Structure to design on (618 residues):
Protein backbone atom coordinates (compact mmCIF):
# COMPACT_ATOMS: atom_id res chain seq x y z
CA UNK A 1 0.00 0.00 0.00
CA UNK A 2 2.76 2.41 1.01
CA UNK A 3 4.65 1.27 -2.08
CA UNK A 4 1.61 1.94 -4.27
CA UNK A 5 1.33 5.45 -2.84
CA UNK A 6 5.04 6.08 -3.46
CA UNK A 7 4.84 4.61 -6.97
CA UNK A 8 1.88 6.83 -7.86
CA UNK A 9 3.70 9.83 -6.43
CA UNK A 10 6.82 9.12 -8.47
CA UNK A 11 4.90 8.52 -11.71
CA UNK A 12 2.91 11.71 -11.38
CA UNK A 13 5.88 13.84 -10.32
CA UNK A 14 7.68 12.67 -13.46
CA UNK A 15 4.59 13.43 -15.55
CA UNK A 16 3.90 16.83 -14.09
CA UNK A 17 6.44 19.17 -12.47
CA UNK A 18 3.59 20.80 -10.55
CA UNK A 19 2.67 17.56 -8.75
CA UNK A 20 5.44 17.50 -6.13
CA UNK A 21 5.04 21.09 -4.97
CA UNK A 22 4.06 21.98 -1.42
CA UNK A 23 0.97 23.80 -2.72
CA UNK A 24 -0.28 20.80 -4.63
CA UNK A 25 0.40 18.30 -1.87
CA UNK A 26 -1.44 20.59 0.54
CA UNK A 27 -4.38 20.61 -1.89
CA UNK A 28 -4.36 16.80 -1.98
CA UNK A 29 -4.22 16.60 1.81
CA UNK A 30 -6.96 19.16 2.27
CA UNK A 31 -9.22 17.39 -0.22
CA UNK A 32 -8.73 14.17 1.75
CA UNK A 33 -10.03 15.37 5.12
CA UNK A 34 -13.74 14.54 4.83
CA UNK A 35 -13.05 11.39 2.85
CA UNK A 36 -10.63 10.17 5.53
CA UNK A 37 -13.34 10.55 8.19
CA UNK A 38 -16.20 9.12 6.14
CA UNK A 39 -14.09 6.18 4.92
CA UNK A 40 -13.36 5.19 8.49
CA UNK A 41 -17.11 4.77 9.04
CA UNK A 42 -17.46 2.89 5.75
CA UNK A 43 -14.65 0.57 6.82
CA UNK A 44 -16.50 -0.28 10.04
CA UNK A 45 -19.73 -0.95 8.13
CA UNK A 46 -17.88 -3.09 5.58
CA UNK A 47 -16.34 -5.02 8.50
CA UNK A 48 -19.79 -6.25 9.57
CA UNK A 49 -20.56 -7.21 5.98
CA UNK A 50 -22.79 -4.18 5.38
CA UNK A 51 -22.70 -1.07 3.22
CA UNK A 52 -23.87 2.49 3.79
CA UNK A 53 -24.79 4.59 0.75
CA UNK A 54 -26.20 7.38 2.94
CA UNK A 55 -22.86 8.70 4.24
CA UNK A 56 -22.64 11.52 1.69
CA UNK A 57 -26.14 12.86 2.32
CA UNK A 58 -25.68 12.37 6.06
CA UNK A 59 -22.58 14.52 5.85
CA UNK A 60 -24.51 17.13 3.87
CA UNK A 61 -27.40 17.27 6.35
CA UNK A 62 -24.98 17.48 9.28
CA UNK A 63 -23.07 20.31 7.62
CA UNK A 64 -26.36 22.10 6.97
CA UNK A 65 -27.17 22.11 10.69
CA UNK A 66 -23.67 23.24 11.59
CA UNK A 67 -23.87 26.02 9.01
CA UNK A 68 -27.32 27.15 10.11
CA UNK A 69 -26.19 27.24 13.72
CA UNK A 70 -23.22 29.42 12.76
CA UNK A 71 -25.52 31.79 10.88
CA UNK A 72 -27.61 32.41 13.99
CA UNK A 73 -24.38 32.97 15.95
CA UNK A 74 -24.43 29.81 18.05
CA UNK A 75 -21.01 29.55 19.76
CA UNK A 76 -18.58 27.70 17.50
CA UNK A 77 -17.94 24.63 19.72
CA UNK A 78 -21.68 24.01 20.16
CA UNK A 79 -22.31 24.44 16.44
CA UNK A 80 -19.50 22.01 15.59
CA UNK A 81 -20.97 19.51 18.04
CA UNK A 82 -24.25 19.59 16.10
CA UNK A 83 -22.48 17.77 13.24
CA UNK A 84 -21.78 14.53 15.12
CA UNK A 85 -25.16 14.77 16.87
CA UNK A 86 -27.09 14.97 13.60
CA UNK A 87 -24.87 12.25 12.17
CA UNK A 88 -25.53 9.85 15.02
CA UNK A 89 -29.26 10.55 14.76
CA UNK A 90 -29.32 9.72 11.04
CA UNK A 91 -27.11 6.70 11.76
CA UNK A 92 -29.75 5.57 14.26
CA UNK A 93 -32.44 5.81 11.56
CA UNK A 94 -30.31 3.72 9.20
CA UNK A 95 -29.47 1.22 11.93
CA UNK A 96 -33.14 0.96 12.90
CA UNK A 97 -34.25 0.07 9.39
CA UNK A 98 -31.41 -2.40 8.81
CA UNK A 99 -31.27 -4.10 12.21
CA UNK A 100 -34.84 -3.90 13.53
CA UNK A 101 -36.38 -4.37 10.10
CA UNK A 102 -33.84 -6.97 8.90
CA UNK A 103 -33.67 -5.08 5.61
CA UNK A 104 -30.58 -5.79 3.47
CA UNK A 105 -28.22 -2.81 3.96
CA UNK A 106 -28.02 -2.02 0.25
CA UNK A 107 -31.82 -1.76 -0.08
CA UNK A 108 -32.21 0.20 3.17
CA UNK A 109 -29.48 2.72 2.43
CA UNK A 110 -30.47 3.15 -1.23
CA UNK A 111 -34.00 4.01 -0.09
CA UNK A 112 -32.83 6.23 2.75
CA UNK A 113 -30.41 7.93 0.35
CA UNK A 114 -33.47 9.11 -1.59
CA UNK A 115 -35.24 10.18 1.59
CA UNK A 116 -32.20 12.08 2.90
CA UNK A 117 -31.68 13.76 -0.50
CA UNK A 118 -35.22 15.11 -0.32
CA UNK A 119 -34.56 16.16 3.29
CA UNK A 120 -31.48 18.20 2.43
CA UNK A 121 -33.43 19.82 -0.42
CA UNK A 122 -36.26 20.69 1.95
CA UNK A 123 -33.80 22.08 4.50
CA UNK A 124 -31.93 24.19 1.96
CA UNK A 125 -35.12 25.26 0.21
CA UNK A 126 -33.30 25.23 -3.13
CA UNK A 127 -30.73 27.78 -1.91
CA UNK A 128 -27.10 27.55 -0.88
CA UNK A 129 -25.63 28.30 2.49
CA UNK A 130 -22.55 30.29 1.61
CA UNK A 131 -20.12 32.74 3.14
CA UNK A 132 -20.56 31.16 6.56
CA UNK A 133 -18.56 32.81 9.39
CA UNK A 134 -15.01 31.56 9.71
CA UNK A 135 -15.28 30.66 13.39
CA UNK A 136 -14.58 26.94 12.93
CA UNK A 137 -11.10 27.64 11.58
CA UNK A 138 -9.43 26.53 14.85
CA UNK A 139 -10.56 23.03 13.92
CA UNK A 140 -8.46 22.88 10.77
CA UNK A 141 -6.03 25.74 10.38
CA UNK A 142 -3.60 26.27 13.26
CA UNK A 143 -0.32 24.49 12.80
CA UNK A 144 1.61 22.56 15.40
CA UNK A 145 5.30 22.21 14.48
CA UNK A 146 4.33 23.25 10.96
CA UNK A 147 1.73 20.53 10.57
CA UNK A 148 -1.95 21.57 10.35
CA UNK A 149 -3.86 20.60 13.49
CA UNK A 150 -6.38 18.69 11.43
CA UNK A 151 -3.72 16.04 10.79
CA UNK A 152 -3.48 15.32 14.51
CA UNK A 153 -7.27 15.17 14.87
CA UNK A 154 -7.50 12.70 12.01
CA UNK A 155 -4.65 10.64 13.44
CA UNK A 156 -6.46 10.54 16.78
CA UNK A 157 -9.65 9.25 15.12
CA UNK A 158 -7.73 6.55 13.27
CA UNK A 159 -5.80 5.46 16.34
CA UNK A 160 -9.08 5.29 18.25
CA UNK A 161 -10.71 3.15 15.55
CA UNK A 162 -7.63 0.95 15.34
CA UNK A 163 -7.76 0.51 19.12
CA UNK A 164 -11.42 -0.45 18.99
CA UNK A 165 -10.72 -3.14 16.39
CA UNK A 166 -7.59 -4.33 18.15
CA UNK A 167 -8.49 -4.32 21.83
CA UNK A 168 -12.22 -4.06 22.46
CA UNK A 169 -14.86 -6.79 22.27
CA UNK A 170 -16.84 -4.54 19.90
CA UNK A 171 -14.06 -4.68 17.32
CA UNK A 172 -13.82 -8.43 17.60
CA UNK A 173 -17.60 -8.73 17.27
CA UNK A 174 -17.65 -6.52 14.16
CA UNK A 175 -15.10 -8.72 12.41
CA UNK A 176 -16.76 -11.92 13.62
CA UNK A 177 -20.17 -10.85 12.31
CA UNK A 178 -18.68 -9.90 8.95
CA UNK A 179 -16.90 -13.24 8.78
CA UNK A 180 -19.85 -15.40 9.74
CA UNK A 181 -23.09 -13.78 10.86
CA UNK A 182 -25.02 -16.86 11.97
CA UNK A 183 -22.04 -18.57 13.55
CA UNK A 184 -21.15 -15.53 15.65
CA UNK A 185 -24.75 -15.32 16.81
CA UNK A 186 -24.47 -18.92 18.03
CA UNK A 187 -21.15 -18.14 19.66
CA UNK A 188 -22.89 -15.52 21.79
CA UNK A 189 -21.95 -12.35 19.95
CA UNK A 190 -24.67 -9.69 20.44
CA UNK A 191 -25.07 -9.41 16.66
CA UNK A 192 -27.89 -6.88 16.55
CA UNK A 193 -26.31 -4.53 19.07
CA UNK A 194 -22.93 -4.69 17.38
CA UNK A 195 -24.46 -4.02 13.94
CA UNK A 196 -26.40 -1.08 15.37
CA UNK A 197 -23.15 0.26 16.80
CA UNK A 198 -21.50 -0.03 13.38
CA UNK A 199 -24.15 2.06 11.61
CA UNK A 200 -24.19 4.56 14.49
CA UNK A 201 -20.43 4.90 14.13
CA UNK A 202 -20.78 5.41 10.39
CA UNK A 203 -23.40 8.14 10.93
CA UNK A 204 -21.34 9.73 13.69
CA UNK A 205 -18.23 9.88 11.52
CA UNK A 206 -20.19 11.27 8.55
CA UNK A 207 -21.52 13.93 10.93
CA UNK A 208 -18.02 14.78 12.15
CA UNK A 209 -17.00 15.04 8.49
CA UNK A 210 -19.88 17.50 8.06
CA UNK A 211 -18.45 19.78 10.75
CA UNK A 212 -15.00 19.64 9.10
CA UNK A 213 -16.59 20.33 5.72
CA UNK A 214 -18.12 23.56 7.01
CA UNK A 215 -14.85 24.50 8.72
CA UNK A 216 -12.97 24.10 5.43
CA UNK A 217 -15.36 25.30 2.75
CA UNK A 218 -17.83 27.50 4.65
CA UNK A 219 -20.72 26.60 2.36
CA UNK A 220 -23.35 23.88 1.96
CA UNK A 221 -25.22 23.07 -1.23
CA UNK A 222 -27.39 20.35 -2.80
CA UNK A 223 -24.45 18.45 -4.25
CA UNK A 224 -22.35 18.46 -1.06
CA UNK A 225 -21.13 14.92 -0.43
CA UNK A 226 -22.78 13.50 -3.53
CA UNK A 227 -19.83 11.37 -4.63
CA UNK A 228 -18.28 10.59 -1.27
CA UNK A 229 -20.07 7.26 -0.66
CA UNK A 230 -18.51 5.58 -3.70
CA UNK A 231 -15.18 7.24 -2.98
CA UNK A 232 -15.25 5.84 0.56
CA UNK A 233 -16.02 2.34 -0.69
CA UNK A 234 -13.19 2.58 -3.22
CA UNK A 235 -10.75 3.85 -0.58
CA UNK A 236 -11.67 1.13 1.95
CA UNK A 237 -11.40 -1.60 -0.68
CA UNK A 238 -8.10 -0.19 -1.96
CA UNK A 239 -6.94 -0.32 1.64
CA UNK A 240 -7.69 -4.01 1.90
CA UNK A 241 -11.23 -4.20 3.29
CA UNK A 242 -13.25 -7.16 2.06
CA UNK A 243 -16.61 -6.17 0.57
CA UNK A 244 -18.18 -9.29 2.04
CA UNK A 245 -17.05 -8.39 5.54
CA UNK A 246 -14.79 -9.83 8.20
CA UNK A 247 -11.54 -8.28 7.06
CA UNK A 248 -10.52 -4.62 7.21
CA UNK A 249 -7.43 -2.55 7.74
CA UNK A 250 -7.77 0.82 9.44
CA UNK A 251 -4.32 1.99 8.40
CA UNK A 252 -5.00 0.55 4.93
CA UNK A 253 -8.10 2.72 4.63
CA UNK A 254 -6.09 5.85 5.43
CA UNK A 255 -3.54 4.92 2.77
CA UNK A 256 -6.38 3.99 0.41
CA UNK A 257 -7.84 7.49 0.74
CA UNK A 258 -4.46 9.11 0.15
CA UNK A 259 -3.68 6.90 -2.86
CA UNK A 260 -7.14 7.55 -4.30
CA UNK A 261 -6.81 11.32 -3.93
CA UNK A 262 -3.25 11.25 -5.34
CA UNK A 263 -4.55 9.36 -8.36
CA UNK A 264 -7.43 11.80 -8.86
CA UNK A 265 -5.17 14.82 -8.49
CA UNK A 266 -2.51 13.28 -10.72
CA UNK A 267 -4.97 12.50 -13.49
CA UNK A 268 -6.19 16.09 -13.48
CA UNK A 269 -2.61 17.37 -13.61
CA UNK A 270 -1.67 15.19 -16.59
CA UNK A 271 -4.71 16.55 -18.39
CA UNK A 272 -7.55 14.07 -17.83
CA UNK A 273 -10.71 16.19 -17.44
CA UNK A 274 -12.26 15.91 -13.97
CA UNK A 275 -15.46 14.63 -15.62
CA UNK A 276 -13.65 11.28 -15.87
CA UNK A 277 -13.32 11.00 -12.08
CA UNK A 278 -16.39 8.78 -11.72
CA UNK A 279 -15.21 6.45 -14.47
CA UNK A 280 -11.76 6.16 -12.90
CA UNK A 281 -13.24 5.50 -9.43
CA UNK A 282 -15.55 2.78 -10.73
CA UNK A 283 -12.83 1.10 -12.81
CA UNK A 284 -10.41 1.23 -9.90
CA UNK A 285 -12.92 -0.50 -7.61
CA UNK A 286 -13.65 -3.24 -10.15
CA UNK A 287 -9.98 -3.71 -11.03
CA UNK A 288 -8.90 -4.11 -7.39
CA UNK A 289 -11.64 -6.63 -6.67
CA UNK A 290 -11.08 -8.54 -9.89
CA UNK A 291 -7.32 -8.92 -9.31
CA UNK A 292 -7.93 -9.86 -5.69
CA UNK A 293 -10.43 -12.57 -6.60
CA UNK A 294 -8.35 -13.81 -9.51
CA UNK A 295 -5.40 -14.25 -7.13
CA UNK A 296 -7.63 -16.12 -4.69
CA UNK A 297 -8.89 -18.44 -7.44
CA UNK A 298 -5.35 -19.15 -8.61
CA UNK A 299 -4.30 -19.99 -5.05
CA UNK A 300 -7.25 -22.36 -4.81
CA UNK A 301 -6.26 -24.10 -8.03
CA UNK A 302 -2.63 -24.36 -6.89
CA UNK A 303 -3.72 -25.86 -3.57
CA UNK A 304 -5.28 -28.73 -5.45
CA UNK B 1 -55.16 -17.52 -4.26
CA UNK B 2 -51.46 -17.51 -4.98
CA UNK B 3 -49.13 -14.99 -3.36
CA UNK B 4 -48.64 -13.32 -6.75
CA UNK B 5 -52.38 -12.80 -7.24
CA UNK B 6 -52.77 -11.40 -3.72
CA UNK B 7 -49.90 -9.03 -4.36
CA UNK B 8 -51.38 -7.96 -7.70
CA UNK B 9 -54.79 -7.25 -6.15
CA UNK B 10 -53.19 -5.40 -3.23
CA UNK B 11 -51.22 -3.18 -5.60
CA UNK B 12 -54.30 -2.47 -7.71
CA UNK B 13 -56.20 -1.46 -4.55
CA UNK B 14 -53.29 0.78 -3.51
CA UNK B 15 -53.24 2.28 -6.99
CA UNK B 16 -56.98 3.07 -6.90
CA UNK B 17 -56.54 4.79 -3.53
CA UNK B 18 -53.69 6.85 -4.98
CA UNK B 19 -55.73 7.77 -8.07
CA UNK B 20 -58.68 8.80 -5.87
CA UNK B 21 -56.38 10.94 -3.74
CA UNK B 22 -54.83 12.55 -6.83
CA UNK B 23 -58.26 13.18 -8.33
CA UNK B 24 -59.33 15.03 -5.19
CA UNK B 25 -56.07 16.93 -4.73
CA UNK B 26 -55.52 17.85 -8.38
CA UNK B 27 -58.64 18.85 -10.30
CA UNK B 28 -58.19 17.96 -13.94
CA UNK B 29 -56.01 14.93 -13.17
CA UNK B 30 -58.42 12.55 -14.85
CA UNK B 31 -58.09 13.06 -18.55
CA UNK B 32 -57.28 10.78 -21.44
CA UNK B 33 -54.05 12.73 -21.80
CA UNK B 34 -53.02 11.86 -18.24
CA UNK B 35 -53.52 8.16 -18.97
CA UNK B 36 -51.40 8.50 -22.08
CA UNK B 37 -48.70 10.40 -20.27
CA UNK B 38 -48.56 7.94 -17.36
CA UNK B 39 -48.25 5.00 -19.76
CA UNK B 40 -45.65 6.88 -21.80
CA UNK B 41 -43.44 7.42 -18.75
CA UNK B 42 -44.15 3.85 -17.61
CA UNK B 43 -42.51 2.21 -20.62
CA UNK B 44 -38.94 3.09 -19.69
CA UNK B 45 -39.30 2.10 -16.05
CA UNK B 46 -41.32 -1.01 -16.95
CA UNK B 47 -38.63 -2.38 -19.27
CA UNK B 48 -35.87 -1.72 -16.77
CA UNK B 49 -37.93 -3.15 -13.90
CA UNK B 50 -38.47 -6.41 -15.79
CA UNK B 51 -34.71 -6.93 -16.00
CA UNK B 52 -34.22 -5.89 -12.38
CA UNK B 53 -36.94 -8.32 -11.24
CA UNK B 54 -35.36 -11.24 -13.09
CA UNK B 55 -31.92 -10.49 -11.65
CA UNK B 56 -33.25 -10.18 -8.09
CA UNK B 57 -35.38 -13.32 -8.56
CA UNK B 58 -32.27 -15.36 -9.33
CA UNK B 59 -30.93 -14.70 -5.82
CA UNK B 60 -27.33 -14.86 -4.70
CA UNK B 61 -27.54 -11.20 -3.68
CA UNK B 62 -28.58 -10.47 -7.27
CA UNK B 63 -29.19 -6.79 -7.93
CA UNK B 64 -28.46 -4.53 -10.89
CA UNK B 65 -27.47 -1.03 -9.78
CA UNK B 66 -26.04 -0.21 -13.21
CA UNK B 67 -29.34 0.05 -15.12
CA UNK B 68 -29.40 3.85 -14.99
CA UNK B 69 -25.91 4.10 -16.46
CA UNK B 70 -26.75 1.54 -19.15
CA UNK B 71 -29.84 3.52 -20.23
CA UNK B 72 -27.86 6.78 -20.39
CA UNK B 73 -24.96 5.30 -22.31
CA UNK B 74 -27.15 3.36 -24.77
CA UNK B 75 -29.34 6.39 -25.44
CA UNK B 76 -26.30 8.53 -26.27
CA UNK B 77 -24.79 5.85 -28.48
CA UNK B 78 -28.06 5.49 -30.35
CA UNK B 79 -28.32 9.24 -30.93
CA UNK B 80 -24.68 9.36 -32.05
CA UNK B 81 -25.29 6.52 -34.52
CA UNK B 82 -28.32 8.38 -35.89
CA UNK B 83 -26.22 11.51 -36.28
CA UNK B 84 -23.59 9.82 -38.41
CA UNK B 85 -26.45 8.70 -40.64
CA UNK B 86 -26.63 4.96 -40.16
CA UNK B 87 -30.41 4.97 -40.08
CA UNK B 88 -32.92 4.12 -37.41
CA UNK B 89 -32.82 0.33 -37.63
CA UNK B 90 -29.05 0.26 -37.17
CA UNK B 91 -29.27 2.74 -34.31
CA UNK B 92 -31.86 0.62 -32.51
CA UNK B 93 -29.81 -2.52 -33.03
CA UNK B 94 -26.66 -0.83 -31.72
CA UNK B 95 -28.42 0.44 -28.60
CA UNK B 96 -29.90 -2.96 -27.77
CA UNK B 97 -26.65 -4.79 -28.51
CA UNK B 98 -24.65 -2.36 -26.40
CA UNK B 99 -27.12 -2.77 -23.54
CA UNK B 100 -26.82 -6.54 -23.73
CA UNK B 101 -23.02 -6.30 -23.84
CA UNK B 102 -22.86 -4.01 -20.79
CA UNK B 103 -25.24 -6.37 -18.96
CA UNK B 104 -23.16 -9.41 -19.88
CA UNK B 105 -20.10 -7.57 -18.59
CA UNK B 106 -21.91 -7.30 -15.24
CA UNK B 107 -22.67 -11.00 -15.45
CA UNK B 108 -18.99 -11.79 -15.98
CA UNK B 109 -17.97 -9.57 -13.05
CA UNK B 110 -20.42 -11.42 -10.82
CA UNK B 111 -20.14 -15.03 -11.97
CA UNK B 112 -16.60 -15.29 -13.35
CA UNK B 113 -14.72 -12.82 -11.16
CA UNK B 114 -16.80 -13.51 -8.08
CA UNK B 115 -17.47 -9.88 -7.17
CA UNK B 116 -20.62 -9.48 -5.03
CA UNK B 117 -23.39 -8.17 -7.30
CA UNK B 118 -24.11 -4.99 -5.39
CA UNK B 119 -20.47 -3.84 -5.53
CA UNK B 120 -19.93 -5.10 -9.09
CA UNK B 121 -22.96 -3.25 -10.47
CA UNK B 122 -22.40 -0.20 -8.26
CA UNK B 123 -18.90 0.06 -9.74
CA UNK B 124 -19.92 -0.68 -13.31
CA UNK B 125 -22.89 1.67 -12.95
CA UNK B 126 -20.52 4.49 -12.01
CA UNK B 127 -18.34 3.61 -15.00
CA UNK B 128 -21.30 3.58 -17.42
CA UNK B 129 -22.93 6.74 -16.04
CA UNK B 130 -19.53 8.43 -15.79
CA UNK B 131 -18.72 7.56 -19.41
CA UNK B 132 -22.05 9.03 -20.50
CA UNK B 133 -21.19 12.33 -18.82
CA UNK B 134 -17.48 12.35 -19.69
CA UNK B 135 -17.84 11.48 -23.39
CA UNK B 136 -20.42 14.19 -24.01
CA UNK B 137 -19.25 16.80 -21.51
CA UNK B 138 -22.81 16.67 -20.19
CA UNK B 139 -24.43 17.95 -23.38
CA UNK B 140 -27.37 16.15 -25.00
CA UNK B 141 -27.07 14.60 -28.48
CA UNK B 142 -29.87 15.24 -30.95
CA UNK B 143 -31.12 12.40 -33.09
CA UNK B 144 -34.55 11.55 -34.44
CA UNK B 145 -36.21 10.50 -37.63
CA UNK B 146 -39.71 10.07 -39.00
CA UNK B 147 -40.53 6.53 -38.04
CA UNK B 148 -38.57 6.71 -34.83
CA UNK B 149 -40.84 9.55 -33.78
CA UNK B 150 -43.86 7.41 -34.61
CA UNK B 151 -42.47 4.70 -32.34
CA UNK B 152 -41.69 7.25 -29.64
CA UNK B 153 -44.84 9.31 -29.80
CA UNK B 154 -47.41 7.26 -31.73
CA UNK B 155 -50.64 6.22 -30.07
CA UNK B 156 -52.89 3.22 -30.43
CA UNK B 157 -56.14 4.67 -29.09
CA UNK B 158 -54.95 6.36 -25.92
CA UNK B 159 -52.18 3.80 -25.35
CA UNK B 160 -48.68 4.81 -26.46
CA UNK B 161 -47.41 2.57 -29.25
CA UNK B 162 -44.26 1.55 -27.37
CA UNK B 163 -46.24 0.48 -24.31
CA UNK B 164 -48.50 -1.73 -26.41
CA UNK B 165 -45.78 -3.04 -28.73
CA UNK B 166 -42.86 -3.46 -26.32
CA UNK B 167 -43.91 -3.54 -22.67
CA UNK B 168 -46.90 -5.86 -22.89
CA UNK B 169 -45.17 -8.42 -25.16
CA UNK B 170 -41.98 -8.30 -23.07
CA UNK B 171 -43.85 -9.03 -19.85
CA UNK B 172 -45.99 -11.70 -21.53
CA UNK B 173 -42.85 -13.34 -22.88
CA UNK B 174 -41.13 -13.23 -19.49
CA UNK B 175 -44.19 -14.65 -17.74
CA UNK B 176 -44.41 -17.45 -20.32
CA UNK B 177 -40.69 -18.22 -19.99
CA UNK B 178 -41.01 -18.44 -16.22
CA UNK B 179 -44.08 -20.64 -16.39
CA UNK B 180 -43.70 -22.90 -19.40
CA UNK B 181 -39.99 -23.38 -20.03
CA UNK B 182 -37.20 -24.90 -17.93
CA UNK B 183 -35.83 -21.37 -17.51
CA UNK B 184 -38.56 -20.70 -14.93
CA UNK B 185 -37.83 -23.52 -12.51
CA UNK B 186 -34.11 -22.92 -13.03
CA UNK B 187 -34.36 -19.27 -12.02
CA UNK B 188 -36.56 -20.01 -9.00
CA UNK B 189 -34.29 -22.87 -7.94
CA UNK B 190 -31.25 -20.63 -8.29
CA UNK B 191 -32.89 -18.00 -6.11
CA UNK B 192 -34.08 -20.55 -3.59
CA UNK B 193 -30.92 -22.54 -3.03
CA UNK B 194 -27.96 -22.05 -5.31
CA UNK B 195 -25.95 -25.06 -4.16
CA UNK B 196 -28.91 -27.39 -4.58
CA UNK B 197 -29.56 -25.87 -8.01
CA UNK B 198 -25.95 -26.48 -9.07
CA UNK B 199 -26.02 -30.05 -7.80
CA UNK B 200 -29.15 -30.83 -9.83
CA UNK B 201 -27.18 -29.86 -12.92
CA UNK B 202 -28.47 -26.36 -13.58
CA UNK B 203 -25.73 -24.25 -15.24
CA UNK B 204 -26.00 -21.64 -12.49
CA UNK B 205 -23.25 -19.33 -13.70
CA UNK B 206 -24.53 -19.26 -17.25
CA UNK B 207 -28.15 -18.67 -16.22
CA UNK B 208 -27.14 -15.77 -13.99
CA UNK B 209 -24.86 -14.22 -16.64
CA UNK B 210 -27.71 -14.40 -19.16
CA UNK B 211 -30.07 -12.70 -16.69
CA UNK B 212 -27.66 -9.79 -16.22
CA UNK B 213 -27.39 -9.68 -20.01
CA UNK B 214 -31.19 -9.60 -20.28
CA UNK B 215 -31.34 -6.76 -17.77
CA UNK B 216 -28.84 -4.81 -19.88
CA UNK B 217 -30.70 -5.62 -23.10
CA UNK B 218 -33.99 -4.37 -21.64
CA UNK B 219 -32.22 -1.21 -20.44
CA UNK B 220 -30.91 -0.75 -24.00
CA UNK B 221 -34.47 -1.13 -25.27
CA UNK B 222 -35.65 1.45 -22.72
CA UNK B 223 -32.97 3.79 -24.07
CA UNK B 224 -34.36 3.28 -27.59
CA UNK B 225 -37.81 4.34 -26.39
CA UNK B 226 -36.44 7.36 -24.52
CA UNK B 227 -34.41 8.55 -27.52
CA UNK B 228 -37.24 7.95 -29.99
CA UNK B 229 -39.67 9.77 -27.75
CA UNK B 230 -37.60 12.83 -26.89
CA UNK B 231 -35.80 13.07 -30.25
CA UNK B 232 -32.52 13.46 -28.37
CA UNK B 233 -30.47 11.72 -25.70
CA UNK B 234 -29.49 13.35 -22.43
CA UNK B 235 -26.43 11.93 -20.62
CA UNK B 236 -28.35 11.69 -17.34
CA UNK B 237 -31.57 10.22 -18.72
CA UNK B 238 -31.09 7.05 -16.67
CA UNK B 239 -30.53 8.83 -13.36
CA UNK B 240 -32.34 7.23 -10.39
CA UNK B 241 -33.57 4.30 -12.50
CA UNK B 242 -31.76 1.84 -10.22
CA UNK B 243 -33.68 3.19 -7.22
CA UNK B 244 -36.99 3.24 -9.08
CA UNK B 245 -36.67 -0.19 -10.69
CA UNK B 246 -35.59 -1.82 -7.44
CA UNK B 247 -38.53 -0.19 -5.67
CA UNK B 248 -40.94 -1.42 -8.34
CA UNK B 249 -39.54 -4.96 -8.23
CA UNK B 250 -39.68 -5.23 -4.42
CA UNK B 251 -43.01 -3.43 -4.14
CA UNK B 252 -44.12 -5.95 -6.76
CA UNK B 253 -43.36 -8.77 -4.35
CA UNK B 254 -40.07 -10.04 -5.72
CA UNK B 255 -38.20 -11.33 -2.66
CA UNK B 256 -34.92 -9.45 -2.23
CA UNK B 257 -33.35 -12.78 -1.26
CA UNK B 258 -34.53 -14.29 -4.55
CA UNK B 259 -36.53 -17.38 -5.35
CA UNK B 260 -40.04 -16.01 -5.08
CA UNK B 261 -42.14 -13.50 -6.99
CA UNK B 262 -43.58 -12.99 -10.45
CA UNK B 263 -43.43 -10.36 -13.20
CA UNK B 264 -47.06 -9.12 -13.32
CA UNK B 265 -47.06 -7.43 -9.88
CA UNK B 266 -43.87 -5.45 -10.63
CA UNK B 267 -45.62 -4.08 -13.76
CA UNK B 268 -48.54 -2.99 -11.56
CA UNK B 269 -46.01 -1.44 -9.18
CA UNK B 270 -44.51 0.50 -12.12
CA UNK B 271 -47.92 1.96 -12.98
CA UNK B 272 -48.38 2.89 -9.32
CA UNK B 273 -44.97 4.57 -9.07
CA UNK B 274 -45.38 6.50 -12.32
CA UNK B 275 -48.85 7.70 -11.32
CA UNK B 276 -47.33 8.93 -8.08
CA UNK B 277 -44.49 10.66 -9.96
CA UNK B 278 -46.97 12.22 -12.39
CA UNK B 279 -49.04 13.48 -9.46
CA UNK B 280 -45.95 15.07 -7.90
CA UNK B 281 -45.09 16.65 -11.24
CA UNK B 282 -48.62 17.98 -11.85
CA UNK B 283 -48.57 19.45 -8.34
CA UNK B 284 -45.52 21.45 -9.50
CA UNK B 285 -43.23 20.02 -6.83
CA UNK B 286 -39.49 19.68 -7.38
CA UNK B 287 -38.48 16.31 -8.86
CA UNK B 288 -36.36 15.71 -5.76
CA UNK B 289 -39.62 14.83 -3.98
CA UNK B 290 -40.07 11.96 -6.42
CA UNK B 291 -36.70 10.60 -5.33
CA UNK B 292 -37.62 11.07 -1.66
CA UNK B 293 -41.04 9.44 -1.97
CA UNK B 294 -39.74 6.49 -3.95
CA UNK B 295 -36.91 5.98 -1.46
CA UNK B 296 -39.44 5.97 1.35
CA UNK B 297 -41.62 3.50 -0.56
CA UNK B 298 -38.65 1.19 -1.08
CA UNK B 299 -37.90 1.09 2.64
CA UNK B 300 -41.59 0.88 3.55
CA UNK B 301 -42.31 -1.98 1.17
CA UNK B 302 -39.46 -4.10 2.51
CA UNK B 303 -40.43 -3.33 6.11
CA UNK B 304 -44.10 -4.12 5.36
CA UNK B 305 -43.12 -7.53 3.98
CA UNK B 306 -41.55 -8.28 7.30
CA UNK B 307 -43.98 -6.83 9.78
CA UNK B 308 -47.46 -7.14 8.27
CA UNK B 309 -49.01 -10.45 9.35
CA UNK B 310 -49.55 -12.76 6.42
CA UNK B 311 -46.83 -10.97 4.52
CA UNK B 312 -43.90 -12.99 3.33
CA UNK B 313 -41.25 -13.71 5.92
CA UNK B 314 -37.75 -13.30 4.63
Amino acid sequence: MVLACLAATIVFSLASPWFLTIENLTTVARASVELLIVSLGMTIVLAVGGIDLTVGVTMAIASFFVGRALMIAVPAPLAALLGPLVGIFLGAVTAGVIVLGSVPPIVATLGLYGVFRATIYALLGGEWLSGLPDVLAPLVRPTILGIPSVAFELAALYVLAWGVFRWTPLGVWWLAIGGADAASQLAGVPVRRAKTAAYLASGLLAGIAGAFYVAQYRNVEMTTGSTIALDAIVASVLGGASVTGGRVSVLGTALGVILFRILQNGFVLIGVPSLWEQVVAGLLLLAVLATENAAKLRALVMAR
Amino acid sequence: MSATTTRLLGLLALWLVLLAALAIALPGFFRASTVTSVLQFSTILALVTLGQSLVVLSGGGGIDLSVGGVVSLCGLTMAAVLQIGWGAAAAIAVSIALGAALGLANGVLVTRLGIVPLIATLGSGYVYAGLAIALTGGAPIRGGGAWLTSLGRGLIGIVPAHFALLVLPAYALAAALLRFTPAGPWIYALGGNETAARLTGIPTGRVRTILYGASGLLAGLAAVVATAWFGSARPNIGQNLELESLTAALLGGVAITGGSGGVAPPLAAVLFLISLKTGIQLANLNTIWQVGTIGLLLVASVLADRFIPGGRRQ
Q: What stands out?
A: Chain B has 13 helices and four strands. Chain B touches chain A through 48 residues (CB under 8 Å).
